[in-house]
Design a protein that fits this description.
Number of helices: 13
Number of strands: 4
Radius of gyration: 19 Å
Largest sheet: 2 strands, antiparallel
Order of helices and strands: HHHHHHHHEEHEEHHHH
Strand content: under 5%
Strand order of the largest sheet: 1-2
Number of domains: 2
Low-confidence stretches: none
Mean pLDDT: 83
Helix content: over 70%
Shape: globular
Length: about 280
């Protein structure tokens, strides 16, 4: 009975999650940025919770303040996409904006005069690189001078979900050789291969579902999602194993936290962004 209850909870959570994601992505550009802004803040909160799990004094400060410091560059993205900024910012200025949270972190530590200052500031920098920058790139892919492109982001999310689904069933049926047993004992090479085959096969049909790109371009994005999505999943598993926890949070019953749901996606985004901007040039 408890097993069926758990499956029911997971199904209900997954349904609500899917509806919120679809509504947030498609309804309006402002809603899109609000959705990913919320994902960013909650994800950063989970990151700082994990990072300072044994350091109570630091946890109080960085859990409350750290997410907002690391998310500061995202505000510039929002202002830019909403047209509040009426001028174009040079890429190197934009890069400098993403360094501001790190300098704020150093300033805080200088004022506090605590111990292990570089250790704490490093997690502010990690929050910027691991979450704030990828989420900002998501918004730049979806909202630009050529219009609103929610199908690009939904397509990338689907590639991750398809790869996970294929890897799960192939691994359950044929998995024998562990992919990285010390970090993620459930993953196998056979599962990864099954996920890759399913992802490439379905990606070929994406022009019929999401449009935007040609079949070969979606297939390349599928390969990128398979490689870097798997690396993202392993990276987050490494973070959790480092701190001895099963899930990054408890926001979604049966599914864990935001980092558990978006670990592959946030790792994929920078590489998908580079491919789209350098080789497709469409958006």
């Amino acid at each position: 009975m408890s097993r069926f209850k758990t499956l029911g909870t997971r199904a209900m959570t997954a349904t609500i999650f899917a509806l919120v994601m679809i509504a947030g992505i498609y309804l309006h550009p402002a809603g899109f940025m609000l959705l990913f802004g919320i994902i960013l803040i909650i994800g950063l909160n989970e990151l700082f919770e994990l990072s300072f799990y044994a350091d109570i004094e630091s946890k109080k400060l960085y859990k409350n303040v750290g997410p907002f410091i690391s998310a500061l560059p995202f505000l510039w993205v929002v202002f830019d996409k909403l047209g509040i900024f009426k001028f174009k910012i040079d890429p190197f200025i934009a890069l400098t904006l993403f360094l501001i949270p790190v300098f704020i972190g150093f300033l805080i530590e200088l004022l506090l005069k605590g111990r292990q200052q570089f250790y704490r500031v490093s997690y502010v920098a990690l929050g910027v690189a691991y979450l704030c920058l990828p989420i900002s790139l998501v918004c730049d892919l979806a909202i630009n001078d050529e219009g609103f492109h929610p199908n690009v982001i939904m397509g990338l999310l689907f590639l991750i979900w398809i790869n996970d689904t294929g890897a799960y069933f192939a691994g359950s049926a044929f998995g024998k050789h562990k992919l990285y047993e010390t970090i993620s004992p459930g993953k196998t090479w056979e599962g990864s291969l099954g996920g890759a085959v399913l992802t490439v096969a379905v990606a070929w049909l994406f022009p019929l579902i999401f449009g935007e790109f040609e079949s070969t371009q979606w297939v390349v994005l599928g390969i990128i999602s398979m490689i870097f999505g798997t690396l993202g999943d392993l990276t987050e598993s490494m973070l959790k194993r480092n701190h001895g926890v099963k899930d990054s949070g408890s926001l979604m019953p049966g599914h864990g936290g935001i980092l558990d749901r978006f670990d592959a996606f946030i790792f994929l985004i920078p590489f998908a962004y580079l491919y789209i901007k350098l080789f497709i040039h469409k958006i």
